[in-house]
Amino acid sequence: MLRIFRHIECEGPGFLAELLQRRKIDFELIEIDKGQSVPGGLNGVSGLIFLGGPMSVNDPLPWLNDELALIKEAHAAGIPMLGFCLGSQLISKALGGEVFRGEAGQEIGWHEVQKLNAPAAEKWLGNDIEAVSVFHWHGETFSLPQDAELILSSRAYPHQAYVMGKTLALQCHIEVSAEMVKEWASLYTADLLQGGRWNQAASVICADLENKIVRLRRFAEPLLETWLNGLEGEIIE
Question: What is the bridge-based pairing of β-strands 2-6 and 27-31?
């Protein structure tokens, strides 16, 4: 059983849920945004997934400490974890990294990430991809925990994705659907009004959106499938 933690209703599992249903993988959605508590214990849990949210991992929210403790426990037990944006920052903080406001300001919209020239990047991303446009919505970033291997970087924020064994942490959002992107552009208008070099307008974000999503999924699917294979005890090579 996979356990997925949602922190705000509009930032759900998106495309990832489609993959799980396609592979008939059972999952439990923990709705933190509706007041659901962080479950204790990991019996019967094959993996943990932490979704995004507008809050900071440094905010004084009680459930944050519960999730951080759970991540430490899962890491010690060798349970695979997957994090998107806030989720990646939670994993980073729990495992010894720091999360802080980035000097580049907000990175919002469709920006390119580059694959690192490193063995871990080849294992997880293959040989066919060097750079791809993915979706971003963040103003904070993280330092790498000890033993983390960086696999993706962007011009604004070098730390875009890393792996630790079978754990994958992504600062960018590769799980979004077209509907999610439109909803965020409508709901998070205060972020867009702040402007900045890496902050795109809603009109730019939503332009040619269906084709952007097609290209994103072409990149996201094999990467997420690689993580899912790790749940079943397969060696990532």
Answer: parallel
Domain positions in the chain are 2-231
Task: Please tell me the class of the 2-231 domain.
Answer: alpha beta
Give the C-alpha separation, 25 to 191, whole Å: 35
Closest by CA position to 105, among listed 213, 193, 180: 193
- Distance (Å, whole) CA 199 – CA 181: 14
Prediction pTM value: 0.96
pLDDT in tens, 15-30: 999 999 999 999 999 9
> Residue 132: which of 213, 205, 216, 214 has the closest Cα?
216
Tally Cβ neighbours within 10 Å of residue 194: 11
**pLDDT, position 223:** 97
Dist CA 4 CA 48 (whole Å): 6
- For residues 156-161, average pLDDT: 98
